[in-house]
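Help wanted!
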Amino acid sequence: MNQPLPDLVAGSSRPNFDLGWQVRIAGTGTYLPRRRVESAEIEARVGVPSGWACMNSGVAVRHWASPDETASWMGAQAALRACAAAGVEPESVDLIVGASGSVERAIPDGAPLLQNALGLGRSGIPSFSVHATCLSFLAAFELAAERIHGGRIRRALVVSSEIASVALDFNAPEACTLFGDGAAACVLERSGDDDTGRVHRVEWITHGADLELTTVRGCGTFRHPNAADADPLDALFRMQGRATLRRASRLAPKLLERLGLDADARRALRWVVPHQTSRAGMNIVASMGFGDGAVVDILRETGNCIAASIPMALSRGIADGRIRRGDRGMLIGTGAGLSAAAIVMTY
Amino acid sequence: MNQPLPDLVAGSSRPNFDLGWQVRIAGTGTYLPRRRVESAEIEARVGVPSGWACMNSGVAVRHWASPDETASWMGAQAALRACAAAGVEPESVDLIVGASGSVERAIPDGAPLLQNALGLGRSGIPSFSVHATCLSFLAAFELAAERIHGGRIRRALVVSSEIASVALDFNAPEACTLFGDGAAACVLERSGDDDTGRVHRVEWITHGADLELTTVRGCGTFRHPNAADADPLDALFRMQGRATLRRASRLAPKLLERLGLDADARRALRWVVPHQTSRAGMNIVASMGFGDGAVVDILRETGNCIAASIPMALSRGIADGRIRRGDRGMLIGTGAGLSAAAIVMTY
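Answered by r_m:
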């Protein structure tokens, strides 16, 4: 049953290596909460001048979930849309991977909640989660694509559903104007010889030394919410914006090098779907030398939706015709950790 | 680069299917917190008769972490021991997978924290987490083994580190006497043709309809700790012990059937490492018809350590000589979700 193992491990030692996984994005779907929050509303609450948010975080509008819009419910709406776009029934998937940076509850992980919200709570479909903050979707995509490539499953559902709004600190204008809520899902399938879908390359770099740069220190076992030393501020998101940007902009060239993407290869990519980090982050992506109009940028209308941003922007790029079958492109992002990762693929 | 895809997807349709992954457990390691907690101490606190805990949960002693024993620090101790047992340097691993049911903080996930605690915070080693509550170790093991099999990496470190003690409800004697803290790690490597290590089969079943049976409803985006409707009880572990047991005992035969493990095959396994759920759970495992002495049972001395229980029992089985090179055995467990999963392998 073993495939011949390559002489070298796939990775940075082989810049022209192509994984050649026959995996396709069969469909994507998104869900945005009903409540649309204009920057003016937050600017007034925070006490910063009108226009501050657009200028600093780059976000004009984001959506915030209402109590009935739980993460699993939103994820299910996005998943149903992704399945409809793929023309498949949800019960036909062989694997459900939760891919969110936030959790709805501490236990169980979000995937069984989503499975149940999809009406598949007795289906038996294997359901578990991957957690890599804003890069959770990429880690889950990689896992699912690798399993499909290996022939163990035919079809997987990867779902990111995020509610950032409950953990915003309204004394931190930069962060509280940046984040939005929302869900996005993707159906991955084994791709036939006539299909165009291929995964070419995956790279990932983690620098745990930078873990304090973007963090929610609480809600876990360290200074547990019920502990004597608990601090409500620990339950809120903390970001050292400039330092994160500095570190991320050092990781990006390393990542591109490992991917074997020189200037020509970067220009040749037909589409680039980055994590929608912030205006400054999107500016870094814009400076990487991708082709005109290749970069999908939805930050202004959705904010940073943690792990849901990449599949949300992917969905947008497909819907607006920028990402077409047979076009080579890239999913790329950074996430708390600090990590940077990318997947080069043909849609 | 593609291996020939099998006609059928690997799974229950092929009871004699063997994945044949050339992957070996190179080393394991554990860390138990300094503070040893006898059941008598909890019995007195809870107000149940002496001997109640041993009789009901099956636990005589568990360890509880002190504040300086954070999950990432404990995980690093276990990881260093696993690397020492494997005879490898921590910096030689190509991937670090966090595999815990509890988190130290909400963001980032535990893997970058662990990477940094190992002094590898600038190494770049890809580090992210898998979350499937008590089955997190199995999901992470599967991911790492599949990636090694595919030739993309040579060596992975999988680490579970759990602090259950902060989320115990001392008004719920069954749960609060059951859980312990601790960490366990495993180094997985590509196995040479002369090595015995192989992964034969992996199966996973999730019934999200049973998600309320074992849960920590809080510490996430639903009734967030800082929200007006937050309830401190939401931050504690809730368990419907009998219902969980009933459901789990229905999933177990399905799982064994999918694994192709009939009565003879079950008796032929030289070792079985189950999740150390509870005395009643261990009794179910004992009734499954495995060989005499095959089942590794450490519940009495460590309690249920969430995802760390399986690698901890694995480590014990290797240390006491029960699990020997070339012996076929199984890792098996249930977890909140509700999920049941198993990996059949040769050590």
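OP: Thanks! One thing I noticed: The radius of gyration of chain B is 19 Å.
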